[in-house]
Amino acid sequence: MDPVQLGLPHRPPFIFIDEVTAVEAGRSANATKCFSSQEPFLKGHFPGNAIIPGVLIAEALAQTAGIAIGGPGKMFLLTAIRAMKFLRAVRPEEPIDLFAECLGEMNGLAQCSVRATCKGEPVAEGQLVLALARQDAGIDKSKQ
Q1: Tell me, what's the pLDDT at 138?
Q2: Known catalytic residue: 45?
């Protein structure tokens, strides 16, 4: 499934999900991402021994969480990283499986448990908080 059609507000080059493989609306989502060895940022991130930056894995997990709890017309913003552990380096061309599950919602905030794996091996896990964005959240949709 296409993440944009499922309500992800991001656009290239800031979409870090290739495909959504499962969604239980309001509850959970599974997605995949495989960073190309040609990504421009890899030229400077450990040259000759490239690894995918953990912050981009965290963003991919946040986008997956937004799909889990969102939908067309709803936009969520990452407001907190409660915990995030990076358990091993991820290399370019390694497919990453992303999973997010909503633990609970209150007053427009949703706490999600997230994890990323490569070939079944854990590479990142944590908890994120997303906030339902107001329609006037300072985003100029005419420039999309």
Answers
A1: 54
A2: yes
